[in-house]
Amino acid sequence: MTDSQETTIIYNATLLLEDAYGEWEFQTGGIRIHQGKIVQLGRGVELSGCGEVPEERTWDAKGAYLTPAFTNAHAHSYTGLLKRTVDRRTLDLYMLEVIALGTDRSLDLIYDATLLHASELISWGYARTVDHFSQRPFPTREGMEAAIQAYRDIGMKAVIAPMFSDIPYLETLPNQMQMSSVRATASARPADEIRNYERLLRESSVRLQGSRDIQVALGVDGPQRCTKDTLAMTASLMRELDIGWQTHLLESHTQWSYGKERDISLPTMLDGYGLLGPKTSLVHAIWLADEECERIARNGSHIVHCPTSNMHLGSGISPLQTYRRNGVQVFLGSDGDNCGTSSPYELMRTAARLSRLDGDNASDWWGAQDAYESQISVSTLFPEVLGKGRLSVGEPADWIAYRPESFRVTTPEELFKELVYYETGRSVEAVMIDGNWKIKDGVPLRAWRNKLERAQKNMDVVLVESAEKLKQAGALFHIVQESAEASRGIVRENWVGNPRKIGL
Ligand SMILES: [Zn+2]
What we know:
By secondary structure, the protein is of the alpha/beta class. It has a domain at 3-68 and 394-443: Urease, subunit C, domain 1 (Roll). Helix content is 38%, strand content 20%. It is built from 17 helices and 19 strands. Strands 6, 7, 8, 9, 10, 11, 12, 13, 14 and 15 form a ten-stranded parallel β-sheet that branches. A hairpin with a 5-residue loop joins β1 and β2. The N and C termini lie far apart (58 Å). Residues 74, 76, 132, 248, 283, 335 line the site of zinc ion (ZN).
């Protein structure tokens, strides 16, 4: 029997709640949890009168600040095996290496990578994530099942969006028509792969219907990497199955130059396919023009900002103030474990501070509350069964407790500043997901630590075996470098407005 099938009483806590008007407030009290859900909350929950609950199922929070668990709006589980492998790589060089390292993974490796990735996220207090799931050369039901099993074993909720593309990477770089080496490697993906992907999504959405921990979404790798047929198929599937659709968009200047060379705007192209809508999730969106941002806002799509990944790969500074002026909703994502930390604290403070490099009007900058709300709130990719990212009755019991002696704050606004600008994770006393303890007394639970040791050993073997694959990827670096040089020229001549990267 798991913890969540019993009743648990948390008492003597300082709860971070929203009042009836959506304003944040502190309330002293507790949480009564039954079958993983919050059934009572606030001042009325005290230890007295709870005699029906055995003592070991109660927890004296001793004044700890109880806040909603975090949400990760974009990540890749396969990078759980690749932490510490990337330094001084632009996005395009990085892609050559991860494509080489991520191809033909066994089901055991998919399981281990997901386990390592999910344990990292849980250790930071995330309860749910969007896994832009990569399985190369193409996603399979068995691969998805291996990842789902890892999430279930560790007890983390996920939306799995299997990534798909049917145009080879090097063909989608600017200036590629001039390069005979690229033309020689170009090869179209067989049409039956598109049909297989469609079938996989249909079957998964039926199989996971009603699931309270795992859901599925469409995961396009990048619009420039998909044929017209694929984009059209995903558009109709999004509407028919009523599921989310996530893609990387305009992450690097080379992606913007690729569109410029063809005189197309990628967001306008997506709109043409009916792919901009309330269930659409656009990741990165750095090299975005003002009118494209307006179009995204008009269609009600949201953007996932990945500040640490954007900086780790030198992709550029997201136009956070333009998003804000246009009213685009923004959520925070960690992206890969190999391109920056997934620490929500670092994501929040980097986002807030980066917004200050995009203009001098301080009232347009992100404040601590903006960053905090972007990190706990759920995007439209998360069905309601996975939780709304708030502590309230009827919601899953997903929360983080911070030791009261670590900092003294008296208002929610002070707490937001503490968590966004100063916290590192060292003040975390406890984490609960769906009513199950994940961290207690500041220590992750032993049951999944043991499984991780095996995964960690497998990871070490894989990295040793990867040397040859990396060498082969390195042999293609010159193609990317020539393309990037051409792209910088295109940007210098054509980009209008604030540069997204200094010194291009
Ligand atoms: Zn990504």
